[in-house]
Design goal:
Blueprint: H1 2-8, E1 22-27, E2 30-36, H2 45-53, E3 61-64, H3 80-85, E4 90-93, H4 105-112, E5 116-119, H5 123-129, H6 131-139, E6 143-151, E7 155-157, H7 169-179, E8 184-188, H8 189-195, E9 202-204, E10 211-213, E11 219-223, E12 244-249, H9 254-262, E13 266-270, H10 279-288, E14 293-296, H11 300-308, E15 314-320, E16 330-331, E17 348-355, E18 358-364, H12 367-373
Parallel strand pairs: 3-4, 4-5, 6-14, 6-15, 8-11, 8-14, 11-12, 12-13
Antiparallel strand pairs: 1-2, 1-3, 7-16, 9-10, 15-18, 17-18
């Protein structure tokens, strides 16, 4: 199962909204088939592993990181009939699929066919591997990663909004790698106006050469309550490989809505909450579209809106050895702070590592903290 989990990680950033899955077929104490789910829409891991094993799959044991699917509401056929047809003796599954269309049904079908089924081998590791998928199928919302580059005293920009560049080139390359693993990136219109970001995944070619834009790009989502985005913004360029969705409110001027749509930009009007784009409704709409993971690269106002509604699941903060000081410099999470230390959120699964001259602090927001803030 350890090998199956390692294989599964090779699909990171390409299987969404499907989970990452690895499969290993063992016969007579030897591995006769191994595979992983490479990309959404392509054959699943167990199908590829059984194809590799061929006739040797008969009477063999299949190690699978996730319960095999048994429904037709997807682009590929269900896997359970193929497992039964292969005449496997035993199937060892790390975890049940939390998808209500599957949850336990695939295992029951295998048992009814006379196949021995074991569940729970390295379950904790398998659950951690697919926490994004599990969150998406159970809540209908994407897993939200709040990412920022900040000083040691928690500032993401000066009082005038200058932020380029707080972090090192190595940290910025790591941020591009992270962009390549998510389905969408969210910023507020204030970030677009201040920095004019491209919000694309770019990797350096060689020293002295310009960056290369990857052909696959996450969706760019701009929260813009009144459609004040400049027409010259980089995220509106038709030359980009990345698509842009502007989330606005039903109070936005219709003329601006028409102009953007005529320019080929998708505009999503939502009923406003306190005059702003409702974050919860926006996330549910993104989840409905198959967006399972969302990277937030906005300013303190957007970060605060998501944080206070309990919509942030993970933080990744690049901390630079700089001090700005002052109460007027921009903080990672804006707005009013809680009155008591007891209301502070303690991150779980904390990891810290050095990236260039900076440190990346990564942690999970506890579910109980999320529900309390919501």
């Amino acid at each position: 199962m350890g090998l199956a989990l390692r294989l599964a990680t090779r699909g990171k950033g390409r299987t969404s909204p499907n989970p990452m899955v690895g499969a290993v077929v063992v016969s007579g104490g030897r591995i006769v088939g191994r595979a992983y789910h490479r990309k959404a829409g392509e054959p699943h891991a167990e199908v590829l592993a059984l194809h590799q094993a061929g006739p040797r799959a008969r009477g063999a044991t299949l190690y699978l990181t996730l319960e095999p699917c048994c429904h037709h509401a997807k682009r590929t056929p269900p896997c359970v009939p193929l497992l039964i047809a292969a005449q496997l003796r035993r199937v060892v599954v790390a975890m049940k699929d939390p998808n209500p269309s599957v949850h336990g049904r695939g295992l029951q079908a295998l048992r009814r066919a006379g196949i021995s089924v074991s569940v729970g081998c390295l379950e904790e590791e398998a659950t951690a591997l697919n926490r994004i998928y599990c969150h998406w199928v159970t809540t209908g919302r994407p897993w939200v990663i709040l990412k920022a580059g900040m000083t040691l005293d928690g500032k993401i920009a000066t009082a005038r909004g200058e932020s380029q560049w707080i972090t090192s080139p190595e940290a910025r390359r790591e941020a591009h790698r992270l962009r390549g693993e998510v389905d969408a990136i969210l910023v507020g219109v204030g970030t677009v106006q201040a920095d004019d970001p491209k919000l694309t995944v770019r990797v350096p070619r060689r020293a002295g050469m310009t960056d290369m834009v990857r052909p696959w790009q996450p969706l760019r989502v701009i929260a813009d309550s009144n459609l004040t985005i400049p027409s010259t913004a980089a995220v509106l360029s038709r030359r980009s490989l990345a698509k842009t969705l502007i989330a606005t409110t039903t109070k936005a001027p219709l003329r601006r809505v028409r102009n953007l749509r005529n320019a080929g930009i998708e505009v999503l009007p939502l009923e406003p909450q306190q005059g702003r784009v409702p974050m919860g409704n926006l996330l549910r709409e993104l989840g409905r579209r198959g967006i399972a993971s969302l990277l937030v690269e906005g300013g303190g106002t957007l970060n605060a809106a998501l944080w206070k509604e309990g919509l942030v699941n993970e933080v990744r903060l690049f901390v630079s050895p700089l001090l700005l000081g002052g109460q007027d410099a921009k903080s990672v999470i804006g707005g009013a702070s809680p009155a008591r230390l007891a209301d502070a959120v303690k991150l779980q699964g904390l990891r810290v590592r050095q990236v260039g001259s900076d440190f990346l602090v990564q942690g999970l927001v506890p579910p109980q903290s999320t529900s309390r803030r919501h």
